[in-house]
């Protein structure tokens, strides 16, 4: 999916880092559809968020570094 030039996935255009430039909810919707599952952003997003950890998603460290100062 990240290799495509689909405007639904890249509404602002595909940049140099497709994994960062892609619209996450559009990718999830297409992935769910590929497995004949119904994607509901609020419900599915909550379930996914409950299983995300810095161990299985190391890029979270970068995000935490950006927002941590806001909560001090």
Shape: globular
Rounded radius of gyration (Å): 14 Å
Supply the number of helical segments.
4
Alpha-carbon distance between the two ends: 38 Å
> Which H/E pattern describes the elements?
HHHH
Structural class: mainly alpha
Query: Which percent range fits the helix content?
Result: 40-55%
Integer average pLDDT:
90
Q: Which parts are unreliable, with pLDDT below 50 for 5 consecutive residues or more? A: none
Largest sheet: none
Number of separate strands? 0
Strand content: under 5%
Structure overview:
The structure is a single chain. The chain is an all-alpha fold. Helices cover 44% and strands 0% of the residues. The protein is built from four helices and no strands. The longest helix is centred in the middle third of the chain and has 11 residues, at 24-34. It is globular. The termini are far apart. The mean pLDDT is 90.
Short characterization:
The chain is 44% helix and 0% strand.
Sequence-ordered SSE layout with sheet pairings:
Layout: H1 18-21, H2 24-34, H3 41-49, H4 60-67
List keywords for this structure.
mainly alpha; 72 residues
